[in-house]
From TrEMBL:
Assigned protein family: Belongs to the EamA transporter family.
Gene source species: Kribbella solani
Regions that span the bilayer: 12-32, 38-55, 67-85, 139-158, 170-188, 194-217, 229-249, 255-271
Record keyword rRNA processing present: no
GO cellular component: membrane
Lineage: Bacteria, Bacillati, Actinomycetota, Actinomycetes, Propionibacteriales
Protein name: Inner membrane transporter RhtA
Pfam families: EamA
Amino acid sequence: MRTGGSRTGVAFAVLSMTMVQLGLAASVGLFDRVGPEGAAWLRLACAGLIVLVLFRPRPSSFSRNSFLVAVGLGVATAGVTLLFMAAVARLPLGTASALEFLGPLGVAVVRSRGRLIWPGLAFAGVLLLTQPWRGSVDGAGVLFALCAAACWAAYIILTQRLGSNVTGMQGMGVSLPVAALVATAIAGPSTIPVMTWQLVAIGFGLALLLPVIPFSLEYLALRRVDAGVFGTLMSLEPALALLIGWFFLSQSPTLLQTIGIAAVVTAGIGAERTTRTPATALPCPDPSPARLTGATPPP
């Protein structure tokens, strides 16, 4: 692999992570106007329209089974986006991202060589993040983040299955519009009546910031760097979320929370490096977080 190409791939990966976290931070600004579920719906709805125009999925690209997997992937995408936004409304961005990261971390741990040190380290990190002994953690926010983590794990598994049957961006051309429909069914009735043309314009801007451009950057990065290197880089995303939350949302973490996020990041890197198959990054609509799996490049 050429050094120049590898450096370009690393730059694409870092830029993708940065745009993901900036998109999440920008979405927080909409909470007062449309709520967390409305912000998630607005981003998904606009992203769904964009990918339909850009990628124009063809029925001939799918078998019956792969199409159903793409639909399931869309449901998981909607779940992780809506649930994560609900978590971010209640928790600091870095904390929510670290908790959501337990989803891909769990997938990587299952594929590791039986080493229990990584889930133990991640559990210690979660304890430091939530500090249940203080009784001040938002239980609903933690629950939303953990449910988002479960949806992300499902997202990884479904993307792996879809990636082995569908090439290019055709899978995303189906999954994101399905995610938009699911989000519309859940958040549309309460959000559509308050929509303005200004919010629509903001929605399309946010959709480009997250997920359309980051997805494309990740795809380009995966063509230039080893999948294991990419997975290790993406394991740093909870730490990046902490920095973005600190600088743009004035969410100052405590020392214990900083150590907790570092523990989760270390667990992610360790689990990724001990998986049986090389880790491949997958694009995520909220999050945030590292894409650890053994799948082919994102569909």
